[in-house]
Amino acid sequence: xxxxxxxxxxxxxxxxxxxxxxxxxxxxxxxxxxxxxxxxxxxxxxxxxxxxxxxxxxxxxxxxxxxxxxxxxxxxxxxxxxxxxxxxxxxxxxxxxxxxxxxxxxxxxxxxxxxxxxxxxxxxxxxxxxxxxxxxxxxxxxxxxxxxxxxxxxxxxxxxxxxxxxxxxxxxxxxxxxxxxxxxxxxxxxxxxxxxxxxxxxxxxxxxxxxxxxxxxxxxxxxxxxxxxxxxxxxxxxxxxxxxxxxxxxxxxxxxxxxxxxxxxxxxxxxxxxxxxxxxxxxxxxxxxxxxxxxxxxxxxxxxxxxxxxxxxxxxxxxxxxxxxxxxxxxxxxxxxxxxxxxxxxxxxxxxxxxxxxxxxxxxxxxxxxxxxxxxxx
Length: 378
Fold this sequence. Notes:
The chain is an alpha/beta fold. The protein has two domains: 5-91, no CATH class; 98-374, TIM Barrel (Alpha-Beta Barrel). Helix content is 35%, strand content 19%. The protein has helices at residues 5-8, 69-73, 78-91, 133-146, 167-181, 195-204, 221-228, 253-270, 290-297, 318-322, 333-345, 356-374, and strands spanning 16-24, 36-37, 44-54, 57-65, 98-100, 103-105, 111-117, 150-154, 187-191, 208-211, 232-235, 278-281, 311-312, 350-353. It has an eight-stranded parallel β-sheet with strand order 12-11-10-9-8-7-14-13. Strands 1, 2, 3 and 4 form a four-stranded antiparallel β-sheet that branches. Strands 5-6 form a two-stranded antiparallel ribbon. Helix 11 (333-345) runs parallel beside helix 12 (356-374).
């Protein structure tokens, strides 16, 4: 199979190539040399879906069997060969384990990140744990006991219309809880956009930084994160200002989000941050319509070509209500599980959720099915 070279030769240096692994195999051992492992996961793909965009618009799409990939790359115009090779290498890149206190996060299986909100106005469980560090810590211990690998502790809501919280108040909300959870067995993540909160949380024992602004909201954040040596989640949002949901829309939400994250990774690495400590999140629900969110969910595998572990957070979000007769937030468990399961099936290394026991069980069942497929007798 060859790419339509006569068509490709007509495109200039502005043409941009994207790769998406498809054709997943339940039992890859039956098809030697016809599949490739996605990162160091339990997923193997047999085809590459390529798309070429020029001036933000798709001009060519097609499928290439993995067994023909090497020969096909050589047929590409020179200005696309390097990118094609780099993207494919990212798809098969082995992610380095992250040391997070007593916990080591290995990316050969998916992890569940439990959400612990310390805010009065979070869209899902606002006020549930506010003002009571011990009650909050007990909820965190329950998440760890239920199988959460990471607990994400936040003191400021980033829902649409939420008020900005003064960093001192945010610190008072999260630090006592972090101090109580340091030895819970799970990695502790601080969900914040503010450098001062990052510093206080790290001093209290936080192992990971989760920033919805990708270290752009606060001018000191990149330096603080780099000096700390902690891993960081870089999330896409249309704005790094007060309102992370504010934007002007998208040409193509999937490639626009991919390009933004690709550039942000490069900028953070150029600033001296270790690439192996970067996790990426496409930012479902942040300045994105229902159609945008569904497009991202249907193209999760494209984001593996960024070369970083991938976090997906769809739990209880408005798109679930929109797809289920406007189900209220506390009645979105089924949709949350469906999205988390889909993300894991597409190779997401981390799913961020409110309902930890149920999600852990779903992931464990998926893992059992994958193990059975991979170890099936030839």
